[in-house]
Structures are given as C-alpha cells and as structure tokens.
C-alpha cells in the first residue's frame, strides 16, 4: 500500500453518476453540473446534495426549495462538463447547450428530455446548507426514458477524468437482507 493524499479521498468514494440539477427562479431556468451527492434514506427517498453559494443555482434552491436532478448518459459528457464550466448568471444554458426543457409534475424546475432519468425534488432540510452547502432533498416524482436504459453514465474521478458504468453483475439471490429494494 502507498499513502494517499487525504484531501483527495473524494476521488476514491465518488458515490454516483455526475448529474445535472435544474432550478427555476424568478422566471429563469438554470441547469448546473453536480458531482457530490448521495442517497441518505430509502423511504421517503432522501438525497444529500452539495450546492454551494458559488453556484448560481444555490440561491434558487434556497429560495424555491425545489429542483430536478437529471441523470445524463455518457453521450452528453462534453455538454455536462461545459455546463459546469460556465455560470447561469450570464448564460442561458438550455439554449447554449441545446437542452430541451419539459414541465415537471410536482416542481417548477424543468425536466431535461435528453437525460435518461429526471428526479423531481423538494428541499426538506437546509440546516446544513450554510455550514456545509448540504441540502437534503426528497424525491417526490421520478421519470425515466426507456429508450436510454442501459446507456452508461459518467462518474467523476475528481481530476477531470471520468469512468463510465461498466459490466453489471447480478447478486440479487444473495441480497437476503435487502430483498424489499429489489425489483
């Protein structure tokens, strides 16, 4: 074993795919790239999301208490990175990056049609937002595009490189304790 820099452990624990987060505030839609998120609870489904005051979406999320987490496939990788490299303060990212917004069912933030999945969320706890930029979101409605099922998603390695979902192994028969969460 070799020692690893503790300030880079996030590269080892990256929890899930890079996602896009949409908000709608004062008549303006925005989309941002987010890599730091995690499932917090199964029922109701709670998601921890790191969105800081440096992000244009931070104010919208704090004020409206709503967003959509859209899960892009790797086919959108370059757009996802480019979205993260500019600010919604100065850029209409939907127009600039050719994304199609679609009305959500439970929140004002839009869905992104080009993404595999869209999860409508409401903020249920923002007590850690000021200290850690951590919002706890409840998933209130979710959508998937069956045509994109099985397409790889991208996972940030913390240094500008990404890994893509790979081979799937099925160990459902061994998941005795968690059977209620299987299909």
UniProtKB/TrEMBL annotation:
* PANTHER family registered for this protein in UniProt: FLAVOREDOXIN, FLAVOREDOXIN-RELATED-RELATED
* Family designation: Belongs to the flavoredoxin family.
What cofactor is needed? Answer: FMN
Q: Does the keyword Lipid biosynthesis apply?
A: no
| Superkingdom in the source lineage | Bacteria
Instruction: Report domain Flavin reductase like positions.
Output: 11-162
Which Pfam families is this protein grouped with?
Flavin_Reduct
The record's listing under InterPro entries reads: Flavin_Rdtase-like_dom, Flavoredoxin, Split_barrel_FMN-bd
Its protein name is: Flavin reductase family protein
Q: Which UniProt keywords apply?
A: Flavoprotein
Q: Name one GO molecular function term.
A: FMN binding
